[in-house]
Design brief:
Length: about 260
């Protein structure tokens, strides 16, 4: 009772708004331990189930409601958002699909098995490509089986030719996400309740912007699929109140975070 009264008084003094950020459900490429990037891999059966029973279920349990949704132009992001909104009985919400929220482009690593690459180039090199802030995979070549699937994807028609990547580092992804984050942040501070459903590296890029993490700190951040991350902002000052709050079972979150951090089998 005292805690509820304290929260009520706090809200009267300081008007706040929440933002929820989450990574899409497991994709077919996640399942097969392949570098995905801008390839439009669909959700796996487990990924669809994660969107329902982990993402949506935890959002419902937390009694969170939204006014607007952001996702990328890739189907695994859009489909996760659709499933979550359906489970929450709010499929009518406006949804913005923005190419700037597409996953980081993994260049010529696209379609390659992470373990095979580690066996070929060494685990240190693969982790450099995956986690180092300036780790830049080799640009995708026309010989890559996914090159033309990516370049000819109609979902990317809005991407300016001079901004269409052939590879990206974490730094480049953070810079790409920066303008759209500024737009979303402005809406959040105006009171719009926003849900963002995107990708692993893009989620990390947004976490860096939101929490003001250093380049070294963000290299160590790993994001599990379908686990909502809640942030609260002071709408007057724009300041972040406290830190991130992950919704869900702590042991499950720890287990899946460790899985994401590793190269896999």
């Amino acid at each position: 009772m005292f805690k509820a009264l304290k929260e009520k008084l706090s809200n009267l003094i300081m008007k706040t708004n929440r933002l929820v950020l989450l990574r899409h459900g497991e994709s077919e490429f996640n399942l097969r331990n392949l570098f995905c990037g801008w390839h439009d891999a669909p959700l796996s059966a487990s990924g669809l189930e994660e969107a329902r029973t982990i993402a949506a279920a935890n959002l419902i349990a937390a009694k969170l409601v939204f006014d607007k949704v952001y996702c990328s132009t890739l189907s695994r992001s859009k489909r996760s958002a659709e499933v979550i909104l359906s489970e929450m009985k709010c499929s009518f919400l406006p949804t913005v699909s923005d190419w700037r929220l597409n996953e980081r482009h993994y260049g010529n690593l696209t379609g390659a098995n992470k373990r095979d690459m580690a066996n070929r180039y060494g685990e240190e090199q693969v982790q450099f490509w995956r986690r180092n802030y300036d780790g830049l995979p080799p640009p995708i070549e026309t010989s890559n089986k996914y090159f033309y699937h990516i370049c000819n994807n109609p979902a990317f028609q809005a991407v300016p030719i001079d901004q269409f990547p052939l590879t990206e580092s974490m730094r480049m992804c953070v810079d790409r996400v920066s303008p759209v984050w500024s737009e979303i942040r402005k809406e959040v501070l105006e009171g719009i309740r926003v849900l963002i459903v995107v990708h692993g590296t893009v989620t990390r890029a947004l976490v860096k912007h939101i929490e003001g993490l250093s380049e070294e700190q963000i290299e160590k951040v790993n994001i599990p699929n379908s686990v909502p991350i809640v942030y609260e902002f002071n709408m007057k000052t724009g300041e972040l109140i406290g830190g991130s709050k992950y919704l869900g079972d702590a042991k499950y979150i720890e287990k899946m975070t460790e899985k994401v951090a590793g190269i896999g089998n």
